[in-house]
């Protein structure tokens, strides 16, 4: 199950869904029906799985389009059953169990008798069971306990063979833990070339490179302020390039003053002063003959996005998903 929610982590939902569909995967995982619609409108036929609880007003469309929801309550299951009966169909659904995330799913004390309660809902096919790991990249002991809890729940609900699809492991779970508990993987971040466990990073390839261009190059004298608030003042004559990107494009303002760099002509060049809405200034004194129009890597193969996230005091997920629509996405090897 390739997780493509939030615009495929900012990479572009339709293009990524098409590329992944060509790899013969079982499911595309989305957050809501709006994302599911966009995938279908793009002509992608891969099964769609809704990763979280749905509200009543969405469920008729889910049934009509035969998307696969996860169930977090009996009331939700009963509603889906009524809608599927009215549509004259049997809807495939998955049970969500809360093994420690606290965001959705059946709680431990709801599990006794759960399958017996679901059994009379003849228009539902209980196809799978899933849970989610909240701390696989931070708390190994808790995660191992959680995996054991998931296995115990499988046994409690009739054994692994009761479910066609068993899924628990996100990217960190897949990279760092025993995979035998499941037969369906749910990678997200690692699909986009970043490991949530840093020691696996060399096994992944960069997917997104965020680029801009130099719009202006000037030499500023010593003692000249750069950007709002004069947070940075030159101490020597400095060759300063203005770059046509800013926080209005999703490049994080919080890297200001934190030693963040960009790459120009293969040279790492420090950002000077505060990131503004549409422009960034960088010191290109050491980068050679930089001119207007030169390409600038904001992050990518030379400037790891994880470094930018760290300097911004945030996580890679937020950097990726925060890139705004005005940034044009260009795809290599576009399958059309």
Describe what is shown at a glance:
The chain has 336 residues and is of the alpha/beta class. 26% of the residues lie in helices and 21% in strands.
Poorly predicted ranges? none
- The SSE string, one letter per element, is EHHEHEHEHEHEHEHEEEEEEEEHH
Tell me the overall shape: elongated
Structural class: alpha/beta
Radius of gyration: 24 Å
Strand order of the largest sheet: 1-2-3-4-5-6-7
**What would CATH call the homologous superfamily of the largest domain?**
Alanine racemase
Just give the CATH class of the largest domain.
Alpha Beta
**Could you tell me the strand content as a percent range?**
15-25%
What is the name of the CATH architecture of the largest domain?
A: Alpha-Beta Barrel
> How many helices does DSSP assign?
10
In total, the number of strands is 15
In whole angstroms, how far apart are the ends? 22 Å
Q: Major sheet, described briefly?
A: 7 strands, parallel
CATH fold name of the largest domain: TIM Barrel
**Fraction in helix:** 25-40%
Can you tell me the number of structural domains? 2
Mean model confidence by pLDDT: 96
Structural overview:
Helix 4 crosses helix 5. The protein has two domains: 145 residues, TIM Barrel, CATH 3.20.20; 112 residues, Lyase, Ornithine Decarboxylase, Chain A, domain 1. It is built from ten helices and 15 strands. 26% of the residues lie in helices and 21% in strands.
What key phrases describe this protein's structure?
336 residues; alpha/beta; TIM Barrel; Lyase, Ornithine Decarboxylase, Chain A, domain 1; six-stranded antiparallel beta barrel; 10 helices; 21% strand; elongated
């Amino acid at each position: 199950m390739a997780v493509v929610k939030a615009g495929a982590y900012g990479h572009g939902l339709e293009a990524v869904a098409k590329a992944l569909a060509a790899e013969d995967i079982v499911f595309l995982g989305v957050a809501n029906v709006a994302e599911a619609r966009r995938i279908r409108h793009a002509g992608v036929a891969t099964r769609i799985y809704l990763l979280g609880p749905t509200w009543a007003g969405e469920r008729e469309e889910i049934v009509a389009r035969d998307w696969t929801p996860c169930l977090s309550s009996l009331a939700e299951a009963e509603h889906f059953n009524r809608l599927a009966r009215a549509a004259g169909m049997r809807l495939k659904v998955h049970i969500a169990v809360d093994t420690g995330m606290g965001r959705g799913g059946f709680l431990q004390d709801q599990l006794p008798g759960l399958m017996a309660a679901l059994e009379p809902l003849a228009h539902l096919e209980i196809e799978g069971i899933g849970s989610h790991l909240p701390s696989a990249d931070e708390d190994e002991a808790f995660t191992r306990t959680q995996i054991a809890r998931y296995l115990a729940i499988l046994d409690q609900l009739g054994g692994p063979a009761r479910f066609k699809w068993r899924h628990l492991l996100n990217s960190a779970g897949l990279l760092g833990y025993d995979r035998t508990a499941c037969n369906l993987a749910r990678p997200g971040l690692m699909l986009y070339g970043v490991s949530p466990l840093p020691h696996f990073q060399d096994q992944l390839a960069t997917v997104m490179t965020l680029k801009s261009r130099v719009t202006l190059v000037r030499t500023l004298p010593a003692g000249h302020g750069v950007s709002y608030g004069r947070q940075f003042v030159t101490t020597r004559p400095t060759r300063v390039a203005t770059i046509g990107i800013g926080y209005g494009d999703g490049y994080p303002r919080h890297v200001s003053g934190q030693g963040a760099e960009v790459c120009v002509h293969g040279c790492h060049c420090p950002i000077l002063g505060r990131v503004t809405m549409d422009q960034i200034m960088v010191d290109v004194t050491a980068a050679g003959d930089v001119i207007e129009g030169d390409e600038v890597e904001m992050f990518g193969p030379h400037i790891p996005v994880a470094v930018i996230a760290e300097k911004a005091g945030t996580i890679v997920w937020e950097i990726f998903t925060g890139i705004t629509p005005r940034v044009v996405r260009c795809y290599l090897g576009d399958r059309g």
